[in-house]
Design a protein that fits this description.
Elements lengths: L1 E2 L2 H15 L3 H19 L7 E6 L3 H15 L3 E7 L7 H12 L5 E3 L5 H9 L1 E7 L11 H12 L4 E4 L21 E5 L17 E5 L5 H5 L5 E3 L21 E5 L6 H12 L5 E7 H10 L4 E5 L8 H12 L5 E4 L9 H11 L5 E3 L1 H10 L3 H7 L4 E3 L3 H8 L3 H6 L1 H12 L2 E4 L4 E4 L5 E4 L11 H14 L4 H21 L13 H12 L2
Parallel strand pairs: 2-3, 2-5, 3-4, 5-6, 6-7, 7-8, 9-18, 10-11, 10-13, 11-12, 13-14, 14-15, 15-16
Antiparallel strand pairs: 1-9, 16-17, 17-18
Helix pairs in contact: 2-3, 2-4, 3-4, 5-6, 8-9, 8-17, 10-11, 11-12, 12-14, 17-18, 18-19
The chain binds NADP nicotinamide-adenine-dinucleotide phosphate.
């Protein structure tokens, strides 16, 4: 499902007005009608208790005037606050304000801190607050009396229904500009916006309900895909050859593990094995090999030497891998590997040795590349097959020499820019994992739950993605399905009665195989 930014949404609105001939005031009427319907459905006390509507000076406020009028006409008790002056209203918002006034509606203008106590008491006596202050037109941080009002309302335990977006959330990035209202429901129009699905904004939307307002689908369809939800309807899932043998489904080479990090390597291998590659081999430092082998019945292992001069470690590992393994179909490098001297050379050499197979780099492979600094572009220029990086925000921060808060402030923007500049597939992990493609497209994965926020979960994801790519899946299908499967497995585990807290990465394995079968059978 495509997610639009504010510019794309404005274009769809304008096309509807100009090309279809549906006036903006009618779109606004439809929007207000849709919100009113949802409000009546969600708030059982709407007939008997006060409803507080907060309006801004733009078209989002215009939607608020329609809602206020419709509720008034349904004999609800409505209070309407405008942040600003009625004299400044214009266009469709002014039209609907006048209609509201003409049926006997009244409005209170708020523009000074002295009026904050009034807002507090009005909100406290209301069963619901309708937030029609800012929608897609929010362009600068919320401040002053509006910000103070938001703080007051957020502190009161009153349900907020947001019109289009919770005010303060940026439609294009999910960033909070200044401060924002926290909604229990968000009713949006025609199509969801990017800000609905990216944290921190996504965490303030509550239930998101999309209502049609008359914008034809074709005006949404023609907008170029920049960002979409990671739903899999648009992907063709490769079918598994019924007469295949283990050679048909590829060989994955995993370079992972180390003393005290054996679990990382085995989870990567188990995640991969559960997606169906023909063979999996784990190359791992000698002292860890036996532990890993005892955990993995189906995988093979290659012991990597740790004795001798540490300066030679990278060369020794590289030689051992090249001597022991026939060319694999895909590789996963990094989980639990450590960041010892010179290992970055080994990681880089492997990505260049096998240029024409997909390689997933995670965890310490990323930390090792961060030591090298800025050479990923050089690596990708020399490769013909995709390079997939699966960092968490800390790892990406190290790679880009930024701080974690800087990454988290603009997850989508940074992921898209990095993937394009470096010509890689980037999976930026988080509650809203972002998948960014080298061509500038991005998907937001919003399944999964807090059970995934535990050690081993990322290793498993690396294995799942690498396992799918090993079987010849395209990078888009492999990466998007892998991320989706990981989240869906956590959701299925919880539906099955497991608690999110205490969910282990290995608990997800039975769900991965089950969900994969659902995927393949459509
Ligand atoms: N036909 C349509 O256009 C249509 C149809 C259905 C629904 N809608 C609704 O209209 C919304 C978009 O309307 P819009 O483009 O007018 O934008 P808006 O979301 O209503 O916001 C624009 C208004 O907010 C003010 N503003 C922006 N940031 C501010 C800040 N930080 N502090 C104080 N004021 C700020 C602007 O003032 P300044 O002028 O001073 O910058 C302007 O008055 C949608 O989200 C949707 O709810 C529109």
């Amino acid at each position: 499902m495509k997610l639009l930014n504010s510019e794309q949404m404005q274009r769809a609105d304008h096309r509807t007005i100009e090309e279809v001939g549906l006036p903006g005031a009618v779109l606004m009427e439809n929007a207000g009608a849709g919100v009113t319907r949802i409000l009546k459905n969600r708030c059982s006390q709407w007939r008997t208790k006060q409803i507080l509507i907060l309006a801004g000076g733009g078209n989002n406020g215009g939607d608020g005037f329609v809602i206020a009028r419709r509720l008034l006409q349904s004999e609800a008790k409505v209070s309407l606050i405008l942040f600003g002056k009625t004299a400044k209203l214009q266009g469709d918002a002014l039209l609907h304000f006048n209609v509201f006034k003409n049926i006997g509606g009244s409005i209170r203008e708020i523009d000074s801190p002295q009026q904050l106590s009034k807002i507090q008491s009005m909100a406290a006596h209301s069963c619901i607050v309708v937030d029609a202050v800012f929608g897609t037109g929010l362009i600068r941080p919320v401040s002053g009396v509006i910000a103070q009002s938001f703080a007051i309302i957020n502190q009161l335990d009153i349900p907020v229904l947001a019109v289009d977006l919770p005010s303060g959330v940026c439609a294009n990035s999910g960033r909070i500009l200044g401060c924002a209202l926290k909604a229990r429901w968000t009713v949006t129009f025609g199509v969801e916006k990017i800000g609905h699905r990216i944290y921190p904004g996504a965490g303030l939307c509550g239930e998101i309900i999309t209502v049609p307002i008359g914008i034809p689908d074709q005006f949404i369809d023609i907008e170029q895909h920049t960002v979409a939800r990671n739903q899999l309807e648009d992907l063709t899932i490769p079918s598994r050859k019924s007469d295949g043998h283990k050679g048909s489904f590829g060989h994955l080479l995993i370079v992972a593990g180390g003393v005290g990090k054996e679990g990382a390597a085995s989870l990567t291998a188990m995640g991969a094995l559960r997606t169906g590659p023909g063979l999996v081999t784990v190359a791992t430092p000698e002292p860890s090999r036996q532990i890993i082998a005892s955990k993995l019945t189906e995988a093979m292992t290659i012991p990597l030497p740790v004795e001798g001069n540490q300066q030679d470690l990278a060369t020794n590992w590289l030689n051992k891998i090249l001597d022991s393994a026939i060319k694999p179909s895909a590789m996963a490098i990094g989980p639990g590997l450590g960041t010892q001297t010179n290992l970055n050379i080994c990681v880089q050499a492997l990505t260049l040795q096998w240029k024409d197979i997909p390689i997933v780099l995670d965890a310490d492979a990323l930390n090792l590349l961060a030591i090298t600094g800025g050479e990923i572009q050089l690596v990708t220029q020399q490769r013909s097959a995709p390079l997939i990086l699966t960092p968490h925000p800390g790892e990406l921060a190290r790679l880009l020499q930024l701080t974690v808060p800087e990454i988290q402030k603009d997850r989508l923007g940074i992921a898209v820019k990095t993937a394009k500049e470096w010509q890689i597939w980037l999976v930026l992990k988080g509650a809203d994992t972002i998948i960014a493609a080298p061509d500038g497209r991005a998907w937001i994965n919003d399944n999964g739950n807090s059970g995934l926020a535990s050690g081993g979960s990322g290793d498993l994801l690396t294995g799942i993605i690498a396992g799918l790519l090993t079987q010849g899946w395209s990078p888009e299908t492999g990466v998007r399905c892998g991320v989706w499967l990981h989240g869906a497995a956590a959701d299925a585990a919880v539906v099955d009665g497991n608690s999110e807290s205490g969910l282990l990465a290995q608990d997800l394995l039975p769900y991965i195989i089950k969900l994969q079968s659902d995927l393949m059978n459509g």
